[in-house]
Amino acid sequence: MRCLAGVQPGTVRPMATAQALTADDEGFHSPGPEEQWSDSLYFGGGDGQGTAFYSRIGRRPNEGRVEGALGIWLADGRFVLAFGRDADRDEIASGPVAYECGLPFELWRVRVDGVGRAFARAEDVAVARDEFEEVELGGELRFCAWTEPFSFASGLTDGVATRHYEQPGSIAGVLEVGGERVPLAGAGMRDHSWGVRDWQGVPYWRWFGMLIDPENFLLINNVGTADGGETAGGCLMSGGTLAPIVACETDSELDPELGCQRRFTARARDDLGRDAVLEGEAVSVAPLRQRRDGRLTHVNEGLTRLRWDGREGWGISEYLMQADAADG
């Protein structure tokens, strides 16, 4: 494992799945033989005042395609959704988004260019899907990493891209939505994962993250297993000391109509014995869908008000669940 930048030796607890990385890992990898083998890069973040975004580019070379997705929460309550699909390529770009590596593991550019659908609120993606305004999108954000990349035990099975690393950092720039310039400066996350990605291959997962500064951030996930159990993953950086999450229990309140997250309390413990309680209220949730071979998976992306250790902030929570569980 690579040591975290700016952190003194001895303050980094080894991550459970840490693996040596090189600059080549910042690009697309050579695919495995599986049909659903995928290579996925993600960037997301916000300004802590109601403007936030997520973006993802996923390459599926054995299916001959690459996909790009973008979601933007605007401070006035609107939500913009954009998606595109292209033939397989080496360039890390598809549809409305393109990623450019300026310096491996340190600096990236997120470029936006395309057309999106602006909904009055994020929930309208599901309940008023035909009520949107088509808007031109543009702009550029720059991501500067706070740390070297790290990995941790995510709890995901072979069904969802078990090779991965993440980085928190600062993100800043200007997005353009329907001719309006939207400045954004704040904290964000990036993720790179590769391997088989079967959206229907895991019963559920819950992911939360709160980023304060380079010495204080919390990432938590719970993942359901096929035998009815649950695993915990993530990491806690507190006071400059990083350690993996080894246990977590989450109480969730779901929307009675949409089945998406509305409130949650996650109680976690890292392998240094430190406890963390993260409370969240998802104030704007985009209920997204993944379909394949007659199966339906709900992926709910929520702009979330967060509280942790006396601090308050904003972040993104993600709840994935299969249709039978979500509808039940």
Largest sheet: 8 strands, antiparallel, barrel
Shape: globular
What's the total number of strands? 18
CA-based gyration radius: 18 Å
Tell me the β content. Answer: over 45%
Structure description:
- By secondary structure, this protein is mainly beta.
- It has one domain (34-327).
- It is built from two helices and 18 strands.
- It has an eight-stranded antiparallel β-barrel. Strands 11-12-13-14-15-16-17-18 form an eight-stranded antiparallel beta barrel.
- A hairpin with a 2-residue loop joins strand 11 and strand 12.
- The radius of gyration is 18 Å and the shape is globular.
Keywords:
18 strands; disordered N terminus; 8-stranded antiparallel barrel; globular; 328 residues; 8-stranded antiparallel beta barrel; 61% strand; mainly beta; 2 helices
In short, what is this structure?
This protein has helices at residues 124-127, 323-327, and strands at residues 37-46, 52-60, 65-73, 79-87, 93-94, 97-103, 107-119, 133-145, 163-177, 180-196, 204-213, 216-224, 230-238, 241-254, 261-270, 275-292, 295-308, 311-322. With 328 residues, it is an all-beta fold.
